[in-house]
Amino acid sequence: MSQFPTLFQLTGSEHSAAQWQDAVLVIIDAQNEYRIGDMALPNVEPATVQIQRLLAAARQHGSPVAHIRHIGVPGYLFDPEGPRGQIFDELTPVAGEAVIDKPLPNAFAGSTLQAFLQNTGRTSLIVCGFMTHMCVSATVRAAKDLGYQSTVVADACATRCLPGLESGHLDAQALHEMELVVLADFFACVVKDAAALNA
Hints:
The protein is α/β, with parallel strands linked by helices. The chain has 7 helices and 8 strands; from the N terminus they run αβααββαβαβββαβα.
């Protein structure tokens, strides 16, 4: 055990990365707001490439897919009636994949995600999307409360810079890594990229 053991290690409750044959892929808020809107993310493009690889793997393995779509403000953030609220073209859902609308950061809140997952009979989630510190984190934390085991794919997530509490700002990559460390403490198995699930 390391000098700074995680709560998973201390409690003996850590779990290994998800296997495609047992998992549901949950893609959170891969929407144009993060490309062309006021919340454009610095690392959205490399993360999207990773999400494409995860989506291709899920389809290859016949794993269920849930595309989570945040419903925002008409004419502004995540405009549901305009391009900012639309899912990235290269991640367009196909027949049989669920598109689940949510009003809050936690994708289970006010949505049909829980019902969809229960219908699959699977309790293992592969989670990716945007933003790491916000909707990804909120959803993974809620998933643990509901009895799911989450695997978060680090390179398939991204976030933005935030203002510091007193001055300056917190760098987007630093915030991304910090949130992943927190999730790996007790909420999820965190793997680097899509290739880690296909090894």
